[in-house]
């Protein structure tokens, strides 16, 4: 399975989701590769930190440019699963990844500035589906409020009707300190149990959805 985590807006939690999914897949005993296409290299830094921590290794490589599509397809023959972390912009790498991915997740924070980018992402996904008709694309709400009275998910659900090529993931990632702690240590929140069980449960829900048969 090739999973893409990407979008046009930076700072939405893409690397957190990509590293989390890759770590959970490795913990499940799968041979997974994390591909970092962001020049900032945050996913690569996380993988290096993870290797130093002694946690189960996650292989990570950086790939850029127009050849990404062919390289991903080649690597897919060597690994059981691939998770791609695409940078927060409309890039050659993002467009190439959309053409080869089986599923794409677009992290969006519950703010109008983030939600405005969905119109452009819907267009990119629609264009990619012309070449990759099996592509499934979902928006996943990230850094949502943990306060029950805040209607982040309700507002996102109402908005999705405007985007024919995108669906709303049933999983949601809330604004929790556990994610920052895990990232610093090269871990995923699942590895912080039992203390950070709420964060672990919501990432496990996303993992089960992304890698469903």
TrEMBL record:
This is Chromosome partitioning protein. Residues 3-77 form the CobQ/CobB/MinD/ParA nucleotide binding domain. Pfam families: CbiA. InterPro entries: CobQ/CobB/MinD/ParA_Nub-bd_dom, DNA_Partitioning_ATPase, P-loop_NTPase.
């Amino acid at each position: 399975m090739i999973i893409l985590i990407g979008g046009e807006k930076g700072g939405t939690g893409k690397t957190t989701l990509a590293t989390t999914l890759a770590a959970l897949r490795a913990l499940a005993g799968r041979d997974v590769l994390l591909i970092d296409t962001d020049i900032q290299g945050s996913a690569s830094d996380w993988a290096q930190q993870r290797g130093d921590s002694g946690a189960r290794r996650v292989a990570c490589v950086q790939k850029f440019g127009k050849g990404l599509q062919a390289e991903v397809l080649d690597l897919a023959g060597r690994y059981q699963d691939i998770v791609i972390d695409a940078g927060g912009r409309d890039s050659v790498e993002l467009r190439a990844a959309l053409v080869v991915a089986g599923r794409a997740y677009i992290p969006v924070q519950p703010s109008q500035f983030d939600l405005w980018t969905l119109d452009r992402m819907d267009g990119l996904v629609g264009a990619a589906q012309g070449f990759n008709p099996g592509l499934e694309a979902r928006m996943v709400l990230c850094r949502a409020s943990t306060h029950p009275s805040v209607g982040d998910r309700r507002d996102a659900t109402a908005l999705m009707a405007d985007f024919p090529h995108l669906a709303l993931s049933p999983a949601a990632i809330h604004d929790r300190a556990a994610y920052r702690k895990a990232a610093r240590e090269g871990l995923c929140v699942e590895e912080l149990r039992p203390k950070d069980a709420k964060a672990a449960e919501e990432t496990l829900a996303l993992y089960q959805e992304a890698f469903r048969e």
